[in-house]
UniProtKB/TrEMBL annotation:
<protein>
    <recommendedName>
        <fullName>Arrestin-like N-terminal domain-containing protein</fullName>
    </recommendedName>
</protein>
Length: 413
């Protein structure tokens, strides 16, 4: 092939290459940042009761009570043996199990979430003596199947409903190391201490694609804010019961993406609209400012979590056979924003319980679902000029974020 037809190239002028820095200069502005999480450098060590075998897991935070892994993680470490006399084989195994039990209802079901085994050393195949330290790396699967459907591998979780009927659901994972002895060693008068096992925590991680939008602009014109595409509005009606008052329209605004980090408050804007007479009648039920701790919360906005269990995981005559419980995992705080002739507005944030570590998911007959709920519960419904309000404007699931934060994704019902 002739090279005479190839174009010529000029020498690279390094003076024309712009300089870059990790931090913006005085005339620059950072639009977004994606910092990779540093790989933990700590270790978790578990030893068998008799000290005959230890398992050492790497890439852990310092002083953790249990090792923690995320989506697609590899479980890496070493199996350590103080003595290798009479060892015939060494292997390591990871297992994950989903157990569902309905009390006085559908019975019990168990699903194997994952099961992976690796041989680290075998006397029948090895050409060298068993070493005292054996390295391993086992990957976690991304999905599992219950025989009917395929689901993402669920997080470590436990939930129960006391009483009859009731339920208990557990998802747990463990890693075990086994040391098998030969026949001669088995005859020694020593108690077997050749197995070590430890649970580990599995928290799949994700992140919101977008950050929170800027606050809505407050106005004195109905509905009290300048509506924008960054915010979604949900309307509901509080029916009037007394003569002379009209229904009240509640307009709840939340960010349109409906994806948030649980470690960050979820912002919202709430407007009540009706006649001046109706709004005056509603004053005893308006949201109490968070600074007034003595006020009874009649109007609330919460994040509720529904945990349902269905051992049969089916429907009978078109009806689900599940049992469920509902728990509040987040509470909104309010502050007054503005008033108009026929509306009153509030802004606020929903703070999610910091003990909430995982998001919603579905795995076999276990379903964890989250929703935002706006409610107004009169202390005495017979005397209230308005009917009780309990509406579910948005529901969704929560997802863990790589830096220990958690995000939630809400969708329309």
């Amino acid at each position: 092939m002739s090279t005479s037809s190839l174009p010529s190239y000029r020498a690279l002028d390094h003076s024309r290459i712009p300089t870059y820095s990790a931090e913006p200069s005085a005339y620059e502005r950072r639009l977004a940042v994606n910092r990779s999480r540093l790989r933990p450098s700590g270790e978790f060590v578990k030893q068998s009761k008799g000290g005959g075998v230890s398992i050492r897991l790497t890439a852990q935070e310092n002083n953790v009570s249990l090792p923690v892994y995320g989506c697609g993680s590899s479980i890496e470490g070493t199996v350590e043996l103080p003595r290798t006399d009479g060892v015939a084989a060494v292997e390591v195994k990871i297992e994950g199990t989903l157990r569902l039990k309905e009390i006085a209802e559908g019975g019990t079901v168990t699903h194997k979430l994952c099961s992976s085994r690796a041989s680290l050393w075998d006397a029948d195949r090895a050409s060298v003596p068993c070493p005292t330290s054996l390295r391993f790396s086992l990957g976690l699967p991304a999905t599992f199947t219950d025989g009917k459907d395929t689901y993402p591998l669920p997080p470590t979780h436990e939930v129960h409903l006391s009483g009859v009927p009731g339920f208990r659901a557990t998802i747990d994972y463990a890693i075990s190391a086994y040391v098998y002895k030969g026949k001669a060693a088995a005859l020694l008068p020593v108690k077997q201490n050749n197995t070590v096992s430890t649970p580990f925590v599995y928290y799949p991680r994700s992140r919101p694609a977008l950050g929170l939008p800027g606050p809505m602009t407050i106005t004195t014109v109905y509905p009290g804010v300048l509506e924008s595409a960054d915010w979604t509005c949900f309307d509901t009606v509080m029916a009037a019961k007394s003569r002379g008052v009209k229904d009240i329209v509640a307009k709840l605004y939340i960010p349109a993406s409906r994806v948030f980090c649980l470690s960050e408050p979820i912002p919202f804007h709430l407007t009540f609209a009706s006649s001046a007479v109706s709004l005056a009648a509603f004053l005893p039920y308006v949201p109490a400012p968070s600074s007034y701790m003595g006020a009874r919360r009649l109007t609330r906005i919460q994040v509720l979590r529904q945990s349902s269990v269905d051992v049969r995981n089916t429907t009978i005559a078109g009806t689900k056979t599940d049992i469920w419980r509902v728990l509040s995992i987040g509470e909104g705080s309010f502050r007054h924003a503005c008033d108009g002739q026929e509306f009153m507005s509030f802004v606020g944030e929903i703070a999610v319980n910091p003990n909430t570590r995982i998001g919603g998911f579905k795995a076999g007959g276990l379903f964890i679902k989250d929703c935002i709920v706006l409610s107004m519960i009169p202390p005495d419904p017979t005397k209230s000029p308005f009917s009780e309000l309990r509406t579910f404007p948005a529901n969704g699931v929560f997802h863990s974020f790589h830096a220990g934060r958690v995000s939630c994704r809400f969708s329309l019902l």
